[in-house]
């Protein structure tokens, strides 16, 4: 990817916005939003080397099931490591290329990828006390909904942190899933996520993304 390609995926707000599928393939559909590190790929502290990217068991299967049902699969990831200058967008692109390759080998695909580098402790231009696109704020979900024409009210989000689940709540999604992989078993992540559940916004606590097929409501948002 050259500099012009890099610029084409960075919004004026400094977000990574990569839509991989034509809007006609996602218009009116539900989405399955996935956090990346600890949900789609194994948690590596500030993952920035493609050789360290490894799919979590069951992730490709769940994505394939969503693909088959016409449910858009969208990665929404906080990337404070970019904001803190631990690595840059070139490293992010290399990791994403590796993830795309691994998913392609499994015969499945993502429909879009969004990333937010903003953080209160980031360096300019990414320093922000509470950026609207950094989860638990719903900015990336709203952006995805607009660009892909998604039915957010029928969509689910899967994350290892309570902030992922809260982003789904703040974005008006149908429900959230907290998984024990990644940071999910640390601290109070599980209890904090579970406490977000309401009658209108169920929260499921699972061991990993591999358990999603046992919860049919997650993948029934847009049956075709």
What is this entry, summarized?
The chain is of the alpha/beta class.
Labels describing this entry:
224 residues, alpha/beta, 7 strands
Describe this structure as you would to a colleague.
The protein has 224 residues and is an alpha/beta fold. It has a single domain, classed as HAD superfamily/HAD-like (Rossmann fold). It contains 8 helices and 7 strands. The chain has helices spanning 3-9, 23-26, 59-68, 80-83, 89-105, 139-148, 162-170, 189-194; strands spanning 16-19, 31-34, 72-78, 112-116, 156-159, 175-179, 203-206. It has a 7-stranded mixed beta sheet with strand order 1-4-3-2-5-6-7. The mean pLDDT is 95.
Radius of gyration: 16 Å
User: SSE string, helix = H, strand = E?
Assistant: HEHEHEHHEHEHEHE
Oligomer: single chain
Helix content: 25-40%
Straight-line N-to-C gap: 35 Å
Assigned CATH class: Alpha Beta
In the sheet with the most strands, the strands line up as 1-4-3-2-5-6-7
CATH topology: Rossmann fold
Q: Indicate the low-confidence ranges by residue numbers.
A: none
Return the domain count: 1
Mean pLDDT: 95
> Rough shape?
globular
Structural class: alpha/beta
- The CATH level-2 architecture is identified as 3-Layer(aba) Sandwich
Give the beta-strand count. Answer: 7
CATH level 4 superfamily: HAD superfamily/HAD-like
What share of the residues does DSSP label as strand, in percent? 5-15%
Task: Please give the structural blueprint.
Blueprint: H1 3-9, E1 16-19, H2 23-26, E2 31-34, H3 59-68, E3 72-78, H4 80-83, H5 89-105, E4 112-116, H6 139-148, E5 156-159, H7 162-170, E6 175-179, H8 189-194, E7 203-206
Parallel strand pairs: 2-3, 2-5, 3-4, 5-6, 6-7
Antiparallel strand pairs: 1-4
